[in-house]
Specification:
Number of domains: 2
Strand order of the largest sheet: 2-1-3-6-7
CATH superfamily of the largest domain: Response regulator
Largest sheet: 5 strands, parallel
Number of helices: 5
Low-confidence stretches: 124-156
Shape: globular
CATH class of the largest domain: Alpha Beta
Structural class: alpha/beta
Helix content: 25-40%
Oligomer: single chain
Distance between the termini: 11 Å
Number of strands: 11
Length: 156
């Protein structure tokens, strides 16, 4: 089972870019444009992590981070803020609001990959060889599984 990521981004091109990149990285994705839809997504299919735009039009995206941290059912879900504000004080405010990490726009996808890798629990105990550039069969006892990385880096 893949990790399920909730993308909360009001800008459609940014939402699509993040969703497409996450899917290529092997995640399942739910993408929404506002807080109301984000809150509804938690009742239908709670995510393993949230990518959260800090400024959602007239809404403060950090409201969702605070709501997640106050919820006993969801408080452990990692929240990674995605923001156009790159000042240190902006990043501090995001972390103080309950986010686990903050990535500035334009998105540095290597940094986002590392943030996800750090925040998400490991779903598969198999350690991937970072030199695997294409999927290759590996044998584990009597069971063969298919593992692989992308562009020289292991998949999450």
């Amino acid at each position: 089972m893949n990790h399920h990521i909730l993308v909360v981004e009001d800008n459609q091109p940014n939402r699509e870019l993040l969703s497409d990149w996450l899917e290529v990285e092997g995640f399942s994705v739910t993408a929404v444009a506002n807080l109301e839809d984000a809150l509804a997504a938690f009742t239908h299919d709670p995510p393993h992590a949230v990518l959260l735009d800090v400024k959602l039009g007239s809404e403060d995206g950090l409201y969702l981070a605070a709501w997640i941290r106050k919820s006993s059912d969801f408080e452990a879900i990692p929240v990674i803020a995605v923001t156009a504000h790159a000042m240190v004080t902006d990043h501090e405010r995001v972390i103080m609001a309950g986010c686990n990490a903050c990535v500035s726009k334009p998105i540095d996808f290597k940094l986002l990959r590392e943030s996800l890798r750090t925040c998400l629990p490991k779903k598969n105990p198999i350690q991937l060889d970072s030199r695997d550039e294409i999927a290759s069969p590996k044998s584990i006892g009597p069971v063969s599984v298919l593992i692989g990385g992308s562009i020289g880096e292991p998949a999450l």
